[in-house]
Amino acid sequence: MRKTKRRPFDKKQLREVLGISAKALSGYEAAFSHPSYRHEGAHVNLESFDRLEFLGDAILNYVICSKIYDLFPKASEGELSRLRSILVSRKILCRVARDIRLSKLLRLGKSLKRQPNTSKDKVLADSLEALLSAIYFDAGLIKVERFILRHFKPYLNAKRLFRLD
């Protein structure tokens, strides 16, 4: 198998694209190296993308649940669940990922690059979740919470949320 040429990854990219000042790059590099990229032999000594995505999903749910619990004190459990499911949906995650230009940092395998953009929505959503784990490991829960709330702020409005449903 022919190895894919690995482009350099640096702190400047994170600062320019996401506004993040990183202490350590390995978690971010793992979060932006999709398994399709790794399967081409590009880089195997990174944290698992899928594991980062798993934890990022949990972090996102925690932060969003806490926020909507505070924002909507009269909402029932069912209403809160509906709001949470809208906010953590692939549709919203893709919007946030596009807003922050996450695709500029993603490393995808050649076969995935050739697929239509609609099939890349899952990749964008998964990569955003993996990024949340990288921020958590690099800077802690408070920083990742700030990052999430800053980028999800436009959607933390009941009227807008129910229109997006």
Describe the structure.
The chain is an all-alpha fold. Helix content is 64%, strand content 0%. The protein contains ten helices and no strands. The chain has helices at 11-18, 26-32, 35-38, 49-71, 77-87, 90-99, 110-113, 121-139, 141-152, 158-164. α4 (49-71) packs across α5, α4 (49-71) crosses α9 (141-152) and α6 (90-99) crosses α8. The longest helix has 23 residues, at 49-71. The mean pLDDT is 85.
Summarize the structure.
With 165 residues, the chain is an all-alpha fold. The protein has helices at 11-18, 26-32, 35-38, 49-71, 77-87, 90-99, 110-113, 121-139, 141-152, 158-164. The longest helix is centred in the middle third of the chain and has 23 residues, at 49-71.
